[in-house]
Predict the 3D structure of the following.
Amino acid sequence: MPAETLEREDLFDASFLDRLRVLALRLRKRRQLMRRGSQSTSATGFTREFKDYRHYTPREDYRAIDWRLYARLDKLFVRLYEETQELNLHIMLDTSTSMAQPFPEKRRQALRFAVALAYLALSAQQRVSLYSMSSGVHQELPPLRGQGNIEKVIQAVMKLKFEGLTDMKRCFEEFRPSKQRYGIIFIISDFFGREIGSATEAVARVSAWPGENHFLQIVHPEERQPEIEGELELTEVETGERRRFWLTKRDVQRYVETFDSFVTSLASECASHSVDFMQVTSDEAFEERFLDLLVRGSALAGGV
């Protein structure tokens, strides 16, 4: 069954964008930005911006001389340019059923992180692309640039339908970020697949993408520590499969241990492939956790 529709005010109240602006200012105070919308890199850039002048030396190409300046000062100078390369933020949002059922708080938290990341990038004149991810990958928005496009991002995430299964292997195979542009990729998901190890196995493919890759796991506290016991019937929200169980306290403890092992393995695999991993629970305060995410080290926030 598709997740219930939420109104905009359920996700983004009237002061949400104002709080994002405050967060951006707080971030600048917490960490000196070393990279901005256009990043100086050693790679071939897409634009050449004037940087400075310096005196001409005989070994240099005479074609670099600024002859207009020579006519004014009667001295030889060359113009210095800076190759710049634009950052591209790719937000991949898991829209499978488990991101909204039975805990709709997960969807709220995931959408807020997606919009906040987009806002920060658009404010820095970086390009932002939005993708949904379930049985496959679908591009929800073409690359956008400029702070005025944040409303398009909000409208796009509000229209997303959270339904179906998560096929991470297929999604990561289908998604091919351009090798011509440095990318920052945030995958926002609970990373629950049909098999418990499917997310861990997919990390190697993600690590091959050009750029900077982040896994942001959104979970509900009861998914790690369920408050259930005795005879009950459980439904798998993505497949509709139902099973009856008699659960003891020891059974629940084994589940908790298995869940923790899954998260530990995923985090370890990410670390071994230089993929950033961070877990956020749906009941945590959004603003503080968003800042925690950015100060971990990202070109989006001027990471060092």
User: Anything to note?
Assistant: The chain has ten helices and eleven strands. Confidence is low (pLDDT under 50) at residues 31-49.
